[in-house]
Design brief:
The structure holds two protein chains of two kinds. Chain A is of the alpha/beta class. Chain A has helices at about 35-50, 65-80, 135-145, 190; strands at about 30-35, 60, 90, 120-130, 150-160, 170-175, 180-185, 195-200. In chain A, the strands form two sheets. Chain A has a five-stranded parallel beta sheet, sandwiched between helices. A three-stranded antiparallel beta sheet of chain A has the order 1-8-7. In chain A, α2 links the parallel β2 (about 60) and β3. Chain A is globular and about 45 Å long. Chain B has two domains: about 5-130 and about 285-300, Aspartate/ornithine carbamoyltransferase (Rossmann fold); about 135-280, 3-Layer(aba) Sandwich (Rossmann fold), CATH 3.40.50. In chain B, β5 (about 155-160), α6 and β6 (about 180-185) form a beta-alpha-beta unit. The chains are: A alpha/beta, B alpha/beta. Chain A: InterPro entries: PRTase-like, PRTase_dom, PyrR, PyrR_bifunctional. Chain A: It comes from Nocardiopsis gilva YIM 90087. Chain A: This is Bifunctional protein PyrR. Chain A: One of its GO terms (biological process) is regulation of DNA-templated transcription.
Chain lengths: ~210, ~300
């Protein structure tokens, strides 16, 4: 399964299948390679530190699937710079989605909140692709049920546009203007064996598994 | 819409999906806000023809934790007491737009009949001496949490197998998930059709205890017995009850389970029931997570992810 960002509201299957082994086929084009992704994450880590004035009370929460390894990598980078561990975890938003009735019931991802909790902390949500903004809305609802952060910020590796809600990212790895007929796939070493962002034609419905 | 009528309908993947989902949902019990908005706007009807505070409350709370609207129908004091048939009750529910119906009935097969009359998903919460799939799921979940595995786990189910829907559902589900089940009961309390069940049968508790990882005691269902199945409770207790002496023969990591309500002193001694290796209250807590998982997977999407 790759993080296919599509128009919300389409039918999707629930399973978390294996990632595609070959992402480049047909008209697909790799828009970001491994080193560029690394650089983008390093820059985001520095921006987080700058905006939160040293990142003292920052907690990073990745949105499954691919936001989670990204949150881990950001935490690692911040730790390298500041020499201090940054709590990070994952926040599953499946139960909070607004399109649950449009697809078969899907498997839940992991929610793993660091021991510090989120009360009074600056929570940085981390996802791979920002698209309609509906995932982020669901994540805000989920956070609300977990506690009361002092502030919530959003970091995304790719912003592909086409927002359907008034939501904007605080940290963006790359702005990638796309057409709705295109499909953005993020591949990460931890899950797919390599780092890349691939732009391809949107696949016919139904069948995207993961989404923004 | 699909239904959960029998533990035997679940494939290994489906059962594992339910157990994994329950595990994620169990975390919510520790939060300050324990609810999810997932089933907002959906209606779940608890249709209980038999008294069962434990199961009904568990299903009710599970549905409420998922933000569903819950209606409780109990046979006492409803039109059922006035003679309304199950089919007419079903048609009434249908007219009310129930998305899910949880049914407990004293007749085996009632849940299956109901599933033919309503559009919503039907969950069998115990039909006669037939099945009780969510109980089996929560039992299996408890075993997996305690023992860390199910494959190759040796499970003894002891007592009134004949009248137990819990035993049948457990045998089917445990077999699907790779555990080895031995039923232990007096010959009179072994069901006639037991040779078709995927399990072994023994009449000797002491012999089975030593080689079991899990010992599941069943309640003696006196209310379902229309004759004498054993001479006296005292004799039953001596041969098939789990007391401290027998408990000591089990290996150190083995656990004792009981679906409740327990008859202390007959099936199980107080000493064993209060041991940390007895999982009765844990089973109740796990029941909530399992029922949330089942309701979510049946009703949470445009179509069910489990069931037949």
């Amino acid at each position: 399964m790759c993080a296919q960002k599509r128009t919300e509201g389409d039918a999707r299957t629930a399973h978390t299948a294996d990632p595609p082994k070959t992402a480049d086929h047909g008209d697909s084009k790799t828009v970001l390679e491994g080193p560029e992704i690394q650089r983008a994450l390093t820059r985001i880590a520095h921006e987080v530190l700058e905006r939160t004035k040293g990142g003292e009370d920052v907690t990073l929460l990745g949105i499954p699937t691919r936001g989670v390894p990204l949150a881990g990598r950001l935490a690692q980078r911040i730790e390298r710079v500041e020499d201090r561990a940054v709590p990070w975890g994952s926040l599953d938003i499946t139960m909070y989605r607004d399109d649950l009735r449009l697809a078969p019931a899907r498997a839940l991802g992991r929610t793993d909140i660091p021991a510090e909790g989120i009360d009074g902390r600056v929570v940085v949500l981390v996802d791979d692709v920002l698209f309609s903004g509906r995932t982020v809305r669901a994540a805000l609802d989920a956070l609300n049920d977990l506690g009361r952060p002092r502030a919530v910020q959003l970091a995304t590796l790719v912003d592909r546009g086409h927002r359907e809600l008034p939501i904007r990212a605080d940290y963006v790895g790359k702005n990638l203007p796309t057409s709705l007929r295109e499909n953005v796939t993020v591949l990460l070493d931890e899950l797919d064996g390599r780092d890349a962002v691939v732009l391809g034609p949107a696949k016919p419905r139904p069948g995207a598994e993961d989404d923004n | 819409m699909r239904h959960l009528l029998s533990a035997g309908d679940l494939s290994r993947d489906e059962a594992t999906l339910i157990l994994d989902t329950a595990r994620e949902l169990a975390q919510a019990g520790a939060r300050s806000v324990k609810k999810f908005p997932t089933l907002r706007g959906r209606t779940v009807v608890n249709l209980f023809y038999e008294d069962s505070t434990r199961t009904r409350t568990s299903f009710e709370l599970a549905a409420k934790r998922l933000s569903a609207d819950v209606i409780n129908f109990s046979a006492k004091g409803s039109s059922v007491a006035k003679g309304e048939s199950l089919k007419d009750t079903a048609l009434t529910l249908q007219a009310m737009g129930a998305d899910g119906v949880v049914i407990r009935h004293s007749a085996s097969g009632a849940a299956h009949r109901l599933s033919g009359w309503v559009d919503g998903s039907v969950v069998n919460a115990g039909d006669g001496t037939h099945e009780h799939p969510t109980q089996a799921l929560l039992d299996v979940y408890t075993m997996r949490e305690r023992m860390g595995r199910l494959d190759g786990l040796r499970v003894a189910i002891v007592g009134d197998v004949r009248h137990s829907r819990v035993a049948r559902s457990n045998v089917l589900l445990l077999h699907t998930l790779g555990a080895e089940v031995t039923l232990v009961a007096p010959p009179t309390l072994v069901p006639v059709s037991v040779h078709t069940w995927p399990c072994a049968v023994s009449y000797d508790l002491d012999e089975t205890l030593a080689k079991s990882d899990v010992v599941m005691m069943l309640r003696v269902q006196a209310e379902r017995m229309q004759g004498a199945y054993f001479p006296t409770p005292r004799e039953y207790s001596r041969r098939y009850g789990l007391d401290g002496e027998r408990f000591a023969k089990m290996h150190d990591e083995a656990i004792v389970m009981h679906p409740g309500p327990m008859v202390r002193g007959m099936e199980i001694s107080a000493e064993v029931a209060d041991s940390p290796r007895c999982t009765v209250t844990e089973q109740v807590a796990n029941g909530l997570s399992i029922r949330m998982a089942v309701l979510y997977l049946l009703l949470g999407g445009s179509e069910s992810a489990i069931g037949a």
